[in-house]
Amino acid sequence: MKYNFDEIIKRSKTNSKKWNSTYYKSLFNNQEDLLSMWIADMDFRASDGIQNRLKKLIDFGVYGYGAIDDEYYNAIIRWNKFRNGWEVPKDAIIYTPGIVPAVNYILQTYTNQDDSVMIFSPVYGPFKRSIINNKRKVVEYSLLKDEENYYSMDFEEVEKLVKEKDVKMVIFCSPHNPVGRVWTKEELENIADICLRNNVLMVCDEIHSDLIFGDNKFVSYGNLDEKYRNNGIICNAVSKTFNLAGMQVSNIIIFDKILREKYKNTMALYNILA
User: Fold this and answer.
1) If we measure between CA atoms, which residue out of 121, 233, 115 comes closest to residue 167?
2) CA proximity to 126, closest of 261, 254, 266, 235
3) Domain boundaries along the sequence of the chain
């Protein structure tokens, strides 16, 4: 596919949260001269394939309520099989309007007020805010960093903290935002084992999984054994891969039927039905 990655697209006079200070200054003490690196929003045009598909919808001219059809599910299944080597069960896929809303719904579904939820800092800010906003307790494990800025974990310390704080849920970023670590299969399994041993639900945000550099190999939580998958939830979306954040689309993958029905019940409360 040919694409001009050198094209400069000016967005400061649009309603872009990234570039238009009218929208971002309230977040940063009214500063209006920030570098445009504070939000994960690329400045590339969508691909021709995406543009052409949207043009068909525009030409049709009717924007009524739509259902999630087989074409939608099949696209997710094909992409995960092609990129990650595993087949997502269709029944496990639950459309949700964005991963941050999904994290809030997940917290509301599987934890109670004052429950402890672990994150691995430094990490994407809305995780912590979502935990606080839902009146849960934040438990932070600080990732280890060596002289070359390589981040890792001490799994004994992680499990110690899980036990001490009676953690009920782990929200894990894979690959990690912002440190950039692509976790190995062994690292993923170590965290998953800790969760299993301590009756902790594993929530794995894989939104950056298509943006892998060098010889790093991404291992999805879906590539792990069934015992792990049944104690986990995968969050993914097309928004980072194809720069479609404004479309507010994510897919929450829940293998265990009981866990899945609980999440669907929460979606029904908000009238979010696929």
Assistant:
1) 115
2) 235
3) 1-61, 70-269
Q: Name every residue whose Cβ is closer than 8 Å to that of residue 138 and which is 6 or more positions away in sequence.
A: 116, 117, 119, 128, 131, 132
| Nearby residues of 267 by Cβ (< 8 Å), 6 or more positions away | 94, 96, 105, 273
- CATH assignment of 70-269? 3.40.640.10
Helix (H, G, I), strand (E, B) or coil at 153: coil
User: What is the rounded distance in angstroms from the CA atom of residue 150 to the CA atom of residue 141?
Assistant: 16
**pLDDT for 5:** 83
Pairing of strands 93-96, 250-254: antiparallel
Whether the Cβ atoms of residue 143 and residue 173 lie closer than 8 Å to each other: no
Distance of CA 195 to CAs 67, 115, 173, 269, Å? 35, 15, 15, 28
Query: Shortest CA distance to 92 belongs to which of 246, 188, 191, 221?
Result: 221
Instruction: Count Cβ atoms within 10 A of the Cβ of residue 223 and give its class: 0-12 exposed, 13-18 middle, 19 or more buried.
Output: middle
The per-residue pLDDT for range 212-267, each reduced to its tens digit, is: 999 999 999 999 999 999 999 999 999 999 999 888 899 999 999 999 999 999 99
Give the residue from 1, 88, 11 showing the smallest Cα distance to 44.
11
Rounded distance between C-alpha atoms, residue 42 and residue 180, angstroms:
17
pLDDT tens digits, 175-195: 999 999 999 999 999 999 999
Sign, CA dihedral 262-264-265-267, equals positive
pTM for the whole structure: 0.93
